[in-house]
Amino acid sequence: MSGDAQFDRTDLRLLAEIQQHGRATNAELAARVNLSPSACLRRVQRLESEGVIAGYGARLEPRRIGLGLQAFVRVQLEKHDQHAIGVFADSVVEWDEVVACHALTGDMDYLLHIYVRDLEHFSSFLLDKLLNAAGVADVNSSFVLRTVKDFRALPLSQLE
């Protein structure tokens, strides 16, 4: 589906339920959106095949698995040609510490979302990987003190 896709009310309710309750069975989803199980399954399969549902996964609690420090790092590149951007992007993909990378407008080129064990691990990542990456001109780091909202579901109510 394209970026301006139209969804009916049932599609939106189904997508909202899947975002909230990704492990629900087809029968449970069908009951929640008032569809028969077969009609529900057909809709879910259609949304999957069209790429609207990009995948399924578990949300892990970072601190429970030893990733106690979260940071956002803004990166500015020296050059902005296709080669420099490609080299940087290839590096970012290889770094496990980076869970998200976004190209930005404004004075910085990229925003990296990073999870590491502690400040020592962050220092190692910064000095050994990021600052040694080809084409990096400047970085600016901010550490997360507290997370106020961390719900990754998309705001489907805006589409109604």
Automatic annotation (TrEMBL):
SUPFAM superfamilies assigned: Dimeric alpha+beta barrel, Winged helix' DNA-binding domain
One Gene Ontology biological process: regulation of DNA-templated transcription
Protein name, per record: Lrp/AsnC family transcriptional regulator
Residue intervals of the HTH asnC-type domain: 7-68
PROSITE patterns found in the cross-reference section: HTH_ASNC_1, HTH_ASNC_2
UniProtKB keywords: DNA-binding, Transcription, Transcription regulation
Domain of life: Bacteria
Cellular component aspect of the GO annotation: cytosol
Molecular function GO labels: sequence-specific DNA binding
